Amino acid sequence: MAQTVELFDGYTLLQGDDCFPLTTDSVLLADFLWARPGQRGLEMGCGCGGLWVLAALHLPGCQLDGVELEPGPLALARENQARCGLSHRGVLWLGDLRQGAEPRYDFCLCNPPYHRGGAACQDPARQRARNQRHTPLEEVCQAAARWLRAKGSFFFCWPARQLDQAWQALGQAGMAPRRLRFVHHRPGAPAYLALVEARRGAGEQQVLAPLFLQDEEGRETGEYCRIYHRSPRDTEGG
To answer: What is the mean pLDDT of the chain?
Structure first.
């Protein structure tokens, strides 16, 4: 059964029980993206379309395609495209992101599976979407390298404590991190997430200022509110 999720400016999403829900990680990744007007991108594993919709709204001058392995989430993603008035912005198709890749995109994006094990989900599609044993990061990076044109960018997010795995996977695919931002729940807390832009070849790495979701008192930061299109809370009233 599909549930409606409110985004901003009247945009809404439908999420089904067989879909991995829209998470903070995807919202932050969509805000991290950049591309030049007229460029074309691909979301690898678009699920029910939450990240795709946010990315398309964030990059209004770009075309954005999507590939998804599961028919159910793909049908919902196409419905979300239409309900947000974005069907003209790209093609969503059924397929395996690891197969049939050719270098025709200026950028790729993916919120890949993080989990290595643990309790299995009852729904097989949700299990494949969240567990990296079904789609290892190494395979995602190699696919991105094949999809991308020369000097193309691959955007993804990954647990900060597992970055050694991400750097190894990128290296095996002939890519390296070029732009990096760490996400913290609040000042003084260790980073829990890394937002990464990777490219082929050598180059200087740019580490952006950290992103804090809350301040020292546990209130949402101004940047968090900007990303979520919320009005900052009244700091005097709490």
So the answer is: 90
3-state secondary structure of 43: strand
Q: Which residues of 138-153 are buried (b: 16+ CB within 10 A; e: fewer)?
A: bbbbbbbbbbbeeebb
Q: In which band, very low, low, confident or very high, does the pLDDT at 116 lie, cut at 50, 70 and 90?
A: low
pTM for this structure? 0.91
Answer whether 22's CB lies under 8 Å from 53's CB: no
Count CB neighbours of 228 within 10 A: 15
For 47, 101, 114, 169, the CA distances from 42, given in Å and listed in that order, are 13, 11, 20, 19
Question: What Rg value do the Cα atoms of the chain yield, rounded?
Answer: 17
Q: Which residue has the tokens 């094990």?
A: 117
Q: Of 180, 187, 179, which Cα lies nearest the Cα of 213? A: 187
Instruction: Identify the bridge partners of residue 156 per DSSP, sorted by sequence position.
Output: 110, 196
Q: Which residues pair with 214 in a beta bridge?
A: 220
pLDDT value of residue 122: 53
